[in-house]
Amino acid sequence: MQLKDFYTVKDLSVDGQLATAQITINSKHDIFKGHFPGNPVTPGVCMMQIIKELTEQVVEKHLFMTTSSNIKFMSIIDPEKTPDLVLQLDISETEEGYRVKNTTRFDDTIALKLSSNYKVISKS
C-alpha cells in the first residue's frame, strides 16, 4: 500500500465486474498538514492511487496506470467533514490489463469520476 494509513477499507464487495468499496479517509494523516493546513482537501492524486490499490485487491494483480481520461473532480473531499466514501469500480479486462470506470461519492454527492487503464506488472 503506497498510502500507508491514509485510508481504511471498511467493506469491499464484488459482483461480476462491478466492485463497491466503502472507505474512510484518515483526517489526521500527514498529507493534510500541507494540503491544506486548517482547510484539508483530499488530493486528487491520492484518490487515483486509492482506485488503483482497490482494483489491485479485486483482480489480485499488481498494476501500473498507463492512461486516465474523463477525470472529473466534482466536489471537494474534506476528510474532516466527509471522510466516509463509496467507490464504485466497473472493471473490465483488456489485452494489456484492465480498464476501470470509477465513481466516488459521499452521501448523495458525486465527488469524482474517472476512467483509467492499467497494465499488469510483475512485482519483484
UniProtKB/TrEMBL annotation:
Signal peptide: none
Gene Ontology MF term list: lyase activity
Residue ranges of every copy of the ApeI dehydratase-like domain listed in the record: 15-102
InterPro entries reported for this sequence: ApeI-like (IPR054545), HotDog_dom_sf (IPR029069)
Record protein name field: 3-hydroxyacyl-ACP dehydratase
Originating species: Pseudotamlana carrageenivorans
